[in-house]
Amino acid sequence: MNNYKTLGMTFRVINKTLEHNKNKILESLELTSSQAGVLIYLLQNQNNEINQKDIESYLNLKNPTVTGILNRLEIKCFITRVASDKDARHKKIVLTNKSKNKCKEIFDEIEIAEKHIIRGMSQKEVDLLSELLAKVLNNLQT
Questions:
Q1: Is residue 59 a contact partner of residue 73, using CB atoms and an 8 Å limit?
Q2: Is residue 93 in some structural domain?
Q3: Structural domain of residue 38, as residue ranges?
Q4: Number of structural domains found in the chain
Q5: Residue 135 lies in a domain
Q6: 41 half-sphere exposure, CB direction, 13 A CA radius
Q7: Which string of b and e fits 10-41 if b means at least 16 CB within 10 Å?
Q8: Which of 58, 72, 90, 95 would be a feasible disulfide site paired with 84, CB 3.0-4.6 Å?
Q9: In Å, how far from its chain's centre is CA 46?
Q10: Is residue 2 part of a domain?
Q11: Are 78 and 39 spatial neighbours (Cβ–Cβ below 8 Å)?
Q12: pTM, rounded to two decimals
């Protein structure tokens, strides 16, 4: 049998490996990669009112999955849910001081992981990889 791998299979293996490595790194911070992704998104958008639907859309996850992530972040005191300024029937998701401090650690760990990904590549290769991956993503989304 031919040892043929499709691009899709290669992307799948890369994704699983990245997810495993991120979770291993973030375990010491008491976070999963999904939880860290939510905190980073909230930090980057802290001047905007963010609700659960925004997070679902950004992470491309379903409502029950995001509900679970938010519940666990709330239990760990990383977020609070408060009534929206725009519509009291909705809840906005707000970072706590604890999570703002934790985000610095997350960014430090992500930077280390990113350097690991591109280890041995020239800047030209990194730029080309970024360009090609953006094209792949665009092709998949259109």
A1: no
A2: yes
A3: 7-141
A4: 1
A5: yes
A6: 21
A7: eeeeeeeeeeeebeebbeebebbbbbbbbbeb
A8: 90
A9: 16
A10: no
A11: yes
A12: 0.75
